[in-house]
Fold each of these.
Amino acid sequence: MKAQRKILWLLPLLLGVNVQVCTAAPTPEKVPLCDLQRTAKQGEQRSVRVDGVYSDGFEMGVLTDAACPSEHTWVELDLQSITNKEMLRSMLDTAGKAEVVFEGEFYGPGVPDPKLPEAIKKSYQPGWGHLGAFRTKLVVHAIQSVEPVPADHPASADLSQQVPILQAAEQPKYPPIAKAAHITGKVIVRVTVKDGLVVRTDILSVIDGKAGQRFLETPTVENLKTWRFAADVNGEFPVTYSYSIAGDETDNLTNPRVEMLPSLDVNITARPVKPTVNYGAQSVPATETLAHESGHVDPPKPQ
């Protein structure tokens, strides 16, 4: 009998057949989400098992830990197993959120495009998710558990105690006239949301000068009207839009850098545009003049 077993083991080798022993991949260690968010390095990627409250849509959403509620991680589902998939979908449809344990790949802040100028790469960190608003991302390969969020859980608090998750919005812009006239400032708005839609905006800040109010407040309010949240979101919260101009002057029209923070505050930074002087149909760069609009920027004085 022993001789027969030896022959059976040797037979694949004699026939040139590779024998492979399959072993299950080790389960990643469970790491607190707050620790991952705090220590994530630019360009870092690691396999993790993590828990938290998952909210928003089924395919893409946000993971939050009650220990650091102001931090959010963007989540994308790339499931390699259907276990608990339908349970998660059902709970999101009914409650909009679920307490979960996910397994997958955790990503730190993205790496800027190497083609960008060095000055921009030093100050620019590409984000994940909608409008690049998230520093970290989790690509989920397995849903290990799904539970309802307890009523006393911080994630069940009303909107006055937490920032809702933004589902959609148009890209904020720096008003061209404000950029040309180097108008900067902050616009603070109290936003009222009903059934996931912005139904009212109240300006709380005061910008010196009519030009600032006219050219910064109006586009801020218009952009806020495009914001969309989950249908069960209701309440009020403040939002700050910060408009600034930084970097080297450019002859070309460039898109501003837009950063949306987890608090939903928005930073919009534009590069200064070289002023021009018009000679008939031609326009040439000028070093001592600014784009002019009557009542806002004085034209150069004659020599």
Amino acid sequence: MKKLCFLGAGMFYISGLFAQAYVGQLDKGKSPQAAAAIRLSFNSDQVESGLKAYLGGKGYNSTSTHGYILYRGVQLDSTDKEGSDLYFVTSPADRKVKDLTILSVVPAKKNQDIGSGSFVDSSRLDVARVFLDNLAPYVQAYGTGVQIGDRQEALKKAQKKMNDLLNDQEDLNKRLRGLQTDLDQNKVDQAKAASDLQQNINGDDDIKKRSQKRVNKLIDDQGSLEKKIRRTQTNLDDNKADQQKQQVVVEQQQQGLEAMKAKQNN
């Protein structure tokens, strides 16, 4: 049974299993091209990087032309003596699914003019399909490796942010203890200053003014310290809430990394 599968600006008529390459029609540019294609469970950047790593390891270099990734003179199998020019293109298989990409290839004779009309070498379509089936495990391993690297980096960043929050908590606790010590000392100083003022109540006016000024300053300092304590306590409470949220992020990244490693081992 055939069904329609949209590919970029065009569509494929496809049959066969989801994980296997197939031959269909690619509508790209002015003329539709027969092509081989396969669905891969990675985003387009990962698929293209895997493709380039695979063919680059075999000594082939890519160029870009007419929206294709072009490799010239590629031997599709052991019987291919002349080689074919391979025109690759990627597109999302489903725009709602980020990590699902269709990789298609149009095989052409070497140095074939693609300026107008169909340029596909139809005799190489089936072997191109097999080529994609053989390429898929490499892209799977490569893409999974990239995803693991990305997850490791994301986990590292999440853990660093968590450590920063823990360090901030330590600093805030230290600051809070210091402010509380200053407030306790302020109250002691206020009691002494009030006692001095009382003792000099009938004394020299200048002495009384200085004593009263000191009492007033200590009262002002008390208000400032209490304000700083409230603000620091609020920051500490916010920090603890942020830690709880960040711990969830760390656990999610850890679970994602473990899932990627399990995928790699299967």
Amino acid sequence: MVAVNLSEGDRIAGGIFDACAARAEAEPRRRYLGMSQVGRQCALRLWLELYADVPRRVEGRMARVFDMGHSVEARVIGDLRLVYAVDGEQEEFSDFGGRFMGHCDGIVHGVTSRPHVLEVKSANRTSFEMFRRKGIAGRAEYAAQVQCYMGYSGLERALFVVESKDNQDLYVERVRFDRKAFEALRARAWSILTARVPPPRDRSGGDCRFCPAAGLCEGIEEGAPACGTCARFVPEEALRERGVRIEGDLCVLRKAPASRAGRCEEHEPLA
């Protein structure tokens, strides 16, 4: 029997993971509050991800997990089309001048007489069983996401589909539109987008260990505006469009890279 060189295989797998991580880290930072995010517990996390220099810690394996979600989405849509009509894939919804945005997975026709906004997720065994017990209400950010999509699309029903990563079983739930919940989420988005100082931190969600802003929120100066909320702040993508080559964002006043967090006496709030 020929011996298998496990270390060689690990090296190859490691190279793949490193390449996947590099690809994910090279993607432009999101400059808007996502409708898939607005239901998260901690407003400070959402604010920091928008306006502060939150480090991008991307693990190659997790980057592949996120990519797998796109594959699951395509497969579920294909399967739905065996029974129903599906259109409107990645239809964009936007508010507040493009600062609050989302993209639904599609619009499903034929489930009932009403069209349904489609949202597809994948879940491990534990999460899948949780959805069976609690439904979409078990994940506040998912519930918020579909309420936003229904509110902005003008539709009153959503189809929430979860595929098990373990055995490809499906959990399917029809969700009704709740206008009060939608208006509350829209108001929350506006309050986060327009906050000129960090909002309060909320530890009740218990997910601080997995927060990309963990550690940054510990040392943030209370009441200090972030560079991202200043009229003199120019994001890196906009600089590239103008032909300016710089790693990171720019403070026009200082002609230097912006820290995007911290106090500045010359801070000029956005209009």
Amino acid sequence: MNPNPVEVQILNEAPEVTLLKLYGDIGLEQIPQISTLVDEYYAKGALHWAVDLSNVNFLSSPAVGAIMGLRSRVVSRLGSISLFAASPRLSEKLKLMGVNFAIPSFRNLEAYLAHFRWEYKGESRELNLILPAKSAVVPPTRQLVVGLLRSKGYGQKDAFIMESIVDELANNAIEHGKPVDGVFELKMKIDKSKISLTVINRCEELSEEAQKALIEKYEHPKVNQDSVRGRGIVLVKKLSTKMTYRVEPQRVEVNIVRIREGK
């Protein structure tokens, strides 16, 4: 058992984060030590805190109050505080106290770091798929994209719009791209502020005239009255913040960027 119930140190995996480690039973008698260490590091500019509860058996109400007090201080300066690795029993107690409404909690350090890097370091997530060029794969692909976006905090509107864009570009690659290898590629990269999507298909060699016609399609898209969906590139261009393309004799690539609108 650690003889010192309270430790504060810089987190090696993320030097911007100050780690508050607690051990054993944290009662009223430990509050002065917590306050002294927190004040010391806060005065040095520590604005992002992670509280390690993996070795805590009991956390008193005054200790919770001290953590909530730290939250008020760092949030007022655009900082953050999170808890991680609480036991099931302690986690349930914190929920009953309503702590989870004010301070996020994570199952372990790795989960916390993923959250911190996404929220405060601009880390992105990527999805890279090679899919059969069959219409049956489009609905589950749309659902996968929506699920990923929603899991990263994107709102219903952004998810719905990206679902529509994926539907149009995937079907465009299947129906009009006519991939010679029977597959098409879908790549998505998201961060906290934007979504980038690329759809690629390899086709039979296009003549110069066919390439020019395809470029015209992307430059000046028109609604195809004979299309089942009837929206195609017109809709994609309208819903995207930016759309670019690359037409080669045997390869067509469409890229879109959409800036996040919010929840």
